[in-house]
Design a protein that fits this description.
- The protein has 9 helices and 17 strands.
């Protein structure tokens, strides 16, 4: 389960709460019921991401009550429960599921653990918010979606990128035709790989699942489902040193991608390109909304949009487009980051569950993102272009 020192996003992490008025209705989406006007959450995975982001964000939400936490490392479960005043803590998910009732499992375990934990929770009739990816195999992701349907619950996979105001602005701008037709896009996300657990660098981890996943979610969300994929990946640094927050440094043999390139074909000759890796200089202040560097560019026939900041923590959208009277000039839009944070997924989902508001985050999109990433790895291994079978409801904003 995930643990360790603060990650590259540490300067961006703050207490986060979903906005909006307290729900007036009680969620009735599964057989568990709810406590008053809050969604009862059982959390699992007491490492770094939970300590430094998720728990604080959930406790700040008016829609959530955390009733239990869990980790296979006993000391972590107990320490997190005591630090945040969580009533119950457990050492495996089955004990937790047999404990006090809750409506939503929030899964922040390590990536290789996601499927097993998600399956257990769905089998027990619980809704699930899971860190990305929802599973490592496409067949397992299909299994989770079918199991959720059978049990009458839902699974919501990270990332949350489609819920940011900047994503909404870009999607609606594309839909309006203001920048013409978008035929090409580029996105990037990487850092130096200063991480806290071996699994990041081993099979089931890697930079694409960890970092590039955000860009895949954003670009498919903006441009539509991918129809085929070409990918390349490699291992730039055969040995890495990880720094656990509760143990000595450890040298790790790298067996997963740490430098990856992905090309997606969307409908109507639209192409997008993603670069990601643990090979990138990251000595920047990601909070600075005055930053002019871009991590995403979308080029249309009548204009260009640039996303300032990472798509998991955007600062604004710079745009120039053709006008009838003048060539136009670059201007920044949607600069206010609002209350959006990458760790705000459980609060967002809890609000949707309570109010009945449709979630922009869907299991089908999460499955599609997983298939695209796996196709990228398959393309490198086979030297072939790989077709994508899955799809999702698009456009996200109509």
């Amino acid at each position: 389960m995930s643990s360790g020192k603060k990650i590259d996003r540490r300067n961006f992490i703050k207490a986060a709460a979903a906005t909006g008025i307290l729900a007036k209705t009680v969620f009735a989406g599964n057989s568990q019921g709810t406590s008053a006007k809050k969604i009862r959450v059982g959390h699992i995975g007491c490492g770094n991401v939970a300590l430094n982001a998720y728990i604080v964000a959930m406790q700040a939400s008016p829609f959530i009550e955390i009733v239990s936490t869990c980790d296979i490392i006993h000391s972590r479960a107990e320490a997190l429960a005591k630090k945040f005043g969580i009533p119950k803590y457990y050492y495996n998910v089955h004990e937790q599921l047999a404990g006090p009732e809750f409506d939503l499992l929030v899964n922040t375990t390590s990536m290789p653990s996601h499927f097993e934990v998600n399956e257990a929770a769905l089998e027990a009739g619980r809704n699930v918010w899971t860190e990305k990816p929802m599973a490592l195999k496409v067949s397992d992701a299909h299994r989770l979606i079918e199991l959720a349907r059978k049990k009458g619950v839902k699974i919501y996979p990270a990332p949350t990128v489609v819920t940011s105001p900047q994503f909404k602005f870009m999607a609606e701008t594309i839909g309006s035709g203001k920048v013409g037709k978008i035929f090409s896009a580029h996105a990037t996300y990487g850092h130096e790989g200063k991480l806290w657990s071996p699994w990041f660098f081993q099979k089931g981890g890697g930079s694409l699942y960890d970092l590039g996943v955000y860009n895949v979610g954003t670009l498919t969300g903006l441009l539509g489902p991918a129809r085929s994929v070409v990918g390349m990946y490699g291992i730039s640094t055969p040995m890495r040193t990880v720094h656990p927050h509760d143990g000595p440094p450890e040298d790790v043999k790298v067996t997963a991608d740490d430098n990856t390139m992905l090309i997606m074909e969307h409908d109507n000759a639209v192409f997008s390109h993603i670069q990601t890796g643990y090979t990138y200089f990251s000595g920047r202040d990601d909070k600075d909304i005055s930053r002019t560097d871009y991590t995403m560019d979308l080029t249309g026939t009548d204009g260009i949009m640039h996303l300032a900041g990472y798509d998991w923590g955007p600062h604004g959208v710079d745009m120039v487009y053709r006008t009838e009277t003048e060539p136009g000039k670059m201007e920044r839009y949607c600069e206010d980051p609002g209350t959006y944070t990458w760790q705000g997924g459980p609060a967002y989902v809890a609000e949707c569950m309570l109010t009945g508001k449709p979630s922009l985050i869907t299991a089908e999109h999460g499955l599609h993102v997983l298939e695209v990433m796996n196709a990228c790895l398959e393309s490198q291994e086979t030297g072939r272009r790989v077709k994508i079978e899955s799809t999702f409801n698009w456009p996200i904003f109509r």
